[in-house]
Amino acid sequence: MRDSRFDILFEPVQIGPHTTRNRFYQVPHCTGMGYRHPNAEAAHRGIKAEGGWGVVCTQETEIHSTSDLSPANEGRLWSDADIPALRLMTDAVHEHGSLAAIQLVHGGSHSPNLYSRQPAIAPSHTTVDWGGPIQARGMDLTDIKNLRNWYVEAAKRAKIAGFDIIYAYAGHDMTILQHFLSARHNHRTDHYGGSFENRLRLFREVVSDLKDSVGDTCAIAIRFAVEELLGSDGIEHKNEGHDVIEALAEEPDLWDVNLSDWTNDSQTSRFAKEGFQEPYTAFVKSVTTKPVVGVGRYTSPDTMVRLINSGHLDLIGAARPSIADPHLPRKIEQGRINDIRECIGCNICTAGDNTNVPMRCTQNPTVGEEWRRGWHPERLRPLSSKQHLIIGGGPAGLESARTLTNRGADVTLAEARKTLGGRVTLESSLPGLNEWARVRDYRIGQLAEKPNAQLYTQSPIAAGDVLSFGIPNVVLATGANWRTDGVGRTHKHPLSYLLAPNVFSPDTLMQTGPDKLPNGTIAFFDDDTFYLGSVLAEQVAHTGRRVLFITPNPIVAPYSDNTLEQDRIQRRLIDLGVKIISLHKLAGLSKHTITAACIYSNVETVYECQALVPVTMRLPNDRLWLELQARKSDWQDAGINSVTRIGDCHTPDLIAAAVQAGYQYGAEFGEPVTTPKREVFAGGTVQS
Ligand code: ADP
Ligand code: SF4
User: What pLDDT is attached to residue 473?
Assistant: First the structure.
């Protein structure tokens, strides 16, 4: 039974000709599944509808071949041949009584048209913002007429595909409608440029065209970024962001408002907390009577109620919270608040889309595998009572324990340290990463209610213990350790000069904290490309020590471009006074100096330095595995049927991969081995 405090979240809301059954609104978000994996996309969205999201949107969907985002894998609606793929998604959403929405996009100068080979178009002659040295042509009045027509044709196809809500999208600095609005992008001198009303003209016309063509049966929504965080160079919520909403206030059936660009809209928890968009979007409801949806990585039902009661929003928008927990609304409805799997704001999901593959999620290992492997975030097949011993209480061990106990197995989990959580416990104590502890806390919370789960801390397990326990199925989730010999992407042989007392591993630093480091200058050698080197450097810089950040890469943490954080990370290190030495590798270390060499010229530079922290790669902690392999002949007598390595002790990888390994072991143990399905999608015909 739900708590009556949350009743307001389950009120219906009218959106143009449709009514959504509640206030939970999954806003458009990319999945990396797109037009190349339509069955996967449909299954993913269908599970959201099943989980209670009243409105479920697709991702941005290209309306024409001049808006070709290849090799990115978004939605596509260039012709009638694209309709059947999208029909899969609307059917999956309607099956559960939710409304299906589509976000039509023309990317303009954000579309390099690498596949379609069409010239790119934009309000004014400009450069295309990715994909190579490509330019976009400033549009003439015929181009504008054509563009309006493409929107109408795409909207008609969307209607045939079964969508209830059709978006005009002007956000993320990735759409032609936003670029026409923006004085930064629109340098025209005709009646589509110059004054505010002229720059607004195309947007107004497209919204009106959509209403005229499909507005009888479809609601028309606007997604508009009220703030670009660029000061007077961009749209500001106190100036033109406000003016656009005021000018078009009653035109659409719904306003979906947010920040631009995508790195501002989907900030990670390292840089922004729940509700971070509120100061910018709070005004919107005061200038329109139409329903307003907004986002802010909301996972708390109390916060959601506050947003509705305070008149800030009518609908609670969510992308990431709906990925981490597709059944979040249903859990609130059923009074199962403690079962909510809260997003941790790590943006591993955006990395999937940014690398053009189906996204994965740190918290929800079933994402992207709903159709391919038939995984469901809430449903598991029962398992007749099989006993398991799990060694290691990090994300892999905890997730395997959660899934196995949910299936009915008896689980004993032993963890050597005082606290559960493994690397998540260590990393969540670093600056800005405290929300990552949700990976541990959600799983401990779930296991706490299970009579068939026994969790032991301070219990280091050796091979002899495993044999004497005689528990038939043994899972090794013993993790991995950072190397200190420099080997990684750049150095392929151990560096003998790193066998020195002033070399500290990231594990030691996380376990003991920065106070154990010597005073003076601490060097980091970051060859890992992701977050850890930068966040450790940040922690040390906060202690007042001088920090050198040596990296063979041109920028700090280049992989974090995919999690939309790279510029914020680099800026933070600069703000903290960290000296960044890019395009350099290691060449020597003494008690008081470090030598770095240019990766191109090998020219060496010596810096004063008291200690080094190499962040290069990890090695599996597989000692127990090797010991048990050596005693395999004893297994049968000890009653052991299987020993399986999962997570980092098998292959060091992302936390998301460890969670997935735990889920896969737990969900598929005892099941027949099957090959995942593969999509074959050609010319608008979907085959499974
Ligand atoms: P993963 O990401 O694969 O879950 P982690 O490194 O996060 O790996 O967690 C591994 C956990 O296993 C750590 O908490 C570590 O203390 C624990 N562990 C390692 N070896 C043993 C052992 N022999 N007995 C009990 N716990 C162990
Ligand atoms: Fe949230 Fe991270 Fe999952 Fe994305 S990957 S939905 S940010 S937990």
Answer: 97
- Contact (Cβ atoms closer than 8 angstroms) between residue 41 and residue 91: no
Closest-CA residue to 251 (of 293, 204, 287, 292):
204
Considering every ligand atom shown, identify the ligand nearest to the alpha carbon of residue 647 and give its number.
1
Question: What is the secondary structure of 77-105 as a DSSP string?
Answer: -SSGGGHHHHHHHHHHHHTTT-EEEEEEE
How many Å apart are CA 405 and CA 251, to the nearest integer?
52
Pair of tokens at residue 51: 């989980």
Rounded CA-CA distance 292/253 in Å is 9
d(CA 397, CA 666): 10
Q: How far is CA 518 from CA 427, 503, 578, 593, in A?
A: 22, 11, 17, 13
Q: Which parts of the chain have pLDDT scores under 50?
A: 687-688
Residue of minimum CA distance from atom 8 in ligand 2: 343
User: Residue 455: what are its φ and ψ, rounded to 5°?
Assistant: -110, 130
Q: How far apart are CA 186 and CA 188, in angstroms?
A: 6
Nearest CA to ligand 1 atom 12: 392
Question: Ligand 1: which atom is nearest the Cα of residue 417?
Answer: 16
Nearest bound ligand to CA 350? Answer: 2
Q: Is-cis flag, bond preceding 676, omega within 30?
A: no
In terms of DSSP H, where are the helices of 228-297? 240-247, 262-265, 278-281
With 0-12 / 13-18 / 19 or more C-beta atoms within 10 angstroms meaning exposed / middle / buried, residue 582 is middle
* Residue 279: C-alpha distances to residues 237, 259, 282, 459 (Å): 9, 11, 6, 48
Looking at the annotation, which residues are catalytic?
A: 30, 169, 172, 265
Distances (CA, A) of 39 to 371, 607, 667: 7, 55, 22
Q: Whose CA is nearest to atom 2 of ligand 2?
A: 346
pLDDT of residue 681: 66
Report which bound ligand comes closest to the CA of 427.
Answer: 1
> Would you say 499 and 392 are in contact if contact means Cβ atoms under 8 Å apart?
no
What is 19-76 written as a DSSP string? EESSSEEE-----S-GGG-HHHHHHHHHHHHHTT-SEEEEEEEE-SGGG--TTS--EE
Q: Where does ligand 2 bind, in terms of residues with CB under 6 Å? A: 320, 323-324, 343-349, 361-363
* Of 211, 270, 222, 273, the residue nearest 245 (C-alpha): 222
**Measured distance CA(219)–CA(202) in Å, rounded:** 19
Q: For ligand 1, what atom is nearest to the CA of residue 461?
A: 24
- Angstrom CA distances, 343 to 213, 299, 347, 366, 419, stand at 38, 7, 9, 14, 22
As a whole number of angstroms, the distance between CA 568 and CA 268 comes to 10
Point out the ligand 2 atom lying closest to the alpha carbon of residue 323.
6
Structure tokens at 295: 């986002």
Q: What are the residues facing 55 on neighbouring strands?
A: 25, 99
Pairing of strands 584-589, 593-598: antiparallel
Cβ neighbours of residue 372 closer than 8 Å, sequence gap 6 or more: 40, 358, 676, 677, 678
d(CA 76, CA 60): 8
Q: CB within 6 Å of ligand 1 — which residues?
A: 391-397, 414-417, 422-423, 460-461, 477-480, 621, 624, 647-649, 658
Compute, in angstroms, the gap from residue 300 CA to the centroid of ligand 2.
Answer: 15
Between CA 295 and CA 317 the distance in angstroms is 5
Q: Are strands 473-476 and 387-391 parallel, antiparallel or unpaired?
A: parallel
Alpha helices in 83-163 (DSSP H): 83-94, 141-160
